[in-house]
């Protein structure tokens, strides 16, 4: 066969990539007025805002972040962060690298260090699962975490491609759906009505339901229930609050309604869930 093949891109010359090595994965509750001056890491880092707000400065660019926002830092990239006086800040932080084999992370995530808002998205669920698994002993859990991180990279890449292919009109509607999702995520602890979402977005009730389901795979009030469940799980694991106190904190007037909802959605009672996490 005559002629020579075109040279492969540098990363394509490898038949496989090393799996990601996760060196840190935790849920971080920042103390009041927390922050740090400019620093440089040797690894990649994901930071996902679970609650509150903070401002990152990455190579001179200020990036304000709130609930659901995901950013990433590349190796050898200067960045700093500061929290706000009247805002708490809780984030998922994951440090990872790929050994000596360069992995084309920017092909997947792009060059913008603000990746997007993933409140209620599959990426949020994968990040939460990774954190829970990372602190469990055993090689099997280690392998699961590596797989979850690769799923996160894949989901984010799909999200970025979808965003890039949307028309201006589609992007405007998606922006309004994100606005509604963020509003629900921030106000999950009170009674939210359809009229409130209509006033917020300028769209009709039925249109919101259709477009929200298309964007996120569920209705706005299914999402509200999911947010309440996830927040209840966090409170059950991280605090000593009673079930009744947690029910009120996440927006339910009585513990019986909360208990029925939790079991219907998860298949286990809240007490069973908490006991399983402790053991």
TrEMBL record:
Segments forming domain HTH araC/xylS-type: 178-276
Top-rank taxon, per record: Bacteria
InterPro entries, alphabetized: AraC-bd, AraC_XylS_family_regulators, Homeodomain-like_sf, HTH-like, HTH_AraC, RmlC-like_jellyroll
Keywords: Cytoplasm, DNA-binding, Transcription, Transcription regulation
SMART domains to which the protein is assigned, alphabetical: HTH_ARAC
The protein's name in its UniProt record: AraC family transcriptional regulator
